[in-house]
Hints:
Largest sheet: 7 strands, mixed
Shape: globular
Radius of gyration: 17 Å
Amino acid sequence: MAKKEDSQNMPNYLKFLGTAGARFVMIQQLRASAGTIIHLDGQMVLLDPGPGTLARCAASRPKISAVALQAIILSHRHVDHSTDVNVMMEAMSEGGFQKRGVLFAPEDCLEGGDPVVLRYVRDYIGGIEILRPHAAYEINGLRFHTSGRHRHGTETYGVIFDSTLGRVSFLVDTEFMPELMKWYAGTRVLVMNVVRLKPAEDNRALQHLCLAEAQEIIAALQPEITVLTHFGSTMLRAKPWELAATLSRELGRKVVAASDGMTLNLDDL
């Protein structure tokens, strides 16, 4: 872990270990289903460690050491977002021999009849904090807060970091709702899960954003840069990098499509 006094000189970046969205892309591994590394203000955080996260960390060049993590955040309990949470908690704590790191997760990831976080692994790490709607948290001076509860079939929250570079937001799985524009206001860097190319006939059953809804959100929020990720099969077939380029031209804002292993250097924005 870097010394506190060196943290301001450390790079700020996002690394997309995987960009798969929806069950079929995940099951077939058309895109990797690992999580996202967030490196802000000297802190390294892992968001939504889906299947294969540990393997993708080991295969990255340079290799990503889980021991360098200060925290793991689960936005919700669905398997494509949480499958590797237990092994990453164990790796973060060096097999439980170093009681370190914090897990942030909604309550239904931890309690009830079907928790996704194993009880024996919980004692390995330094602490667990439950995510609530519109609540503030801190990771060694790096502040973040949650959005309101997303409409996604299970307890789900977006994550908004207030860093020295500005607001960096992760708008995760949800049905479209006007409140999103208020919850994510002031965002400089917006990472948005866009599973579908077109809306489903019954979007309430789907509860994922489509491309037109993403365009409406970007137009309202006007972030400096938007990264589209978490693609379903219809988005992949439509070539998300071309869709992002079209959005950039139409909106006059920078929009890019994440790819597996892509690193976004935030210091260069």
